[in-house]
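Hey team,

Filing this mostly as a record. A colleague (T.K.) asked me to run one chain through the structure pipeline before their review meeting, and I want the input and output archived in the tracker in case anyone asks later how it was produced. No errors, nothing strange. Just documentation.

Input sequence:
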Amino acid sequence: MVQAWYMDEEAGDPRRPHRAEPARPVGLEQLRRLGVLYWKLDADKYENDPELEKIRKERNYSWMDIITICKDKLPNYEEKIKMFFEEHLHLDEEIRYILDGSGYFDVRDQEDRWVRISMEKGDMITLPAGIYHRFTLDEKNYVKAMRLFVGDPVWTPYNRPSDHLEARKQYLEFLARTA
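Output structure:
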């Protein structure tokens, strides 16, 4: 089961857990109210997993690829890691399925506080269009993930502030409805 928590304000190494003290865990229902969806799948059978195929069909995730993020496999590793950790949003959902390794997705809650979502093998997450977020590896410095898209992939991140974008406005309307 996924673990998520409110982050501390420490500016240290982003790969550390950064749990707020006292601990403030965040459950799946609270993540859902932020528009974040989660599934636990069997990553060892991702190539022929009927559960994954069902999700892809229901949500129209027609495009996919696999990315490995580690120093040995990702060109321009240091630059990419910094880019992933820059707070941004997308105009489309961001869908990631962890096939091996681990890392953190950080998302902003309704009051603009960081919630850290620990992702490991078998975790699949969908972040809604318009949510401010970022990604970092954890201290193991390795993740292999499937990236899924509705239609052709669009990689454009819009760094904060991007409140003028329609996707952000729609996301804020969604938050107001779920409050």
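Quick notes for T.K.: Helices lie at 28-33, 50-59, 77-85, 166-178. The beta strands are 3-6, 37-40, 63-69, 88-89, 94-108, 114-120, 123-127, 133-137, 143-149, 158-159.
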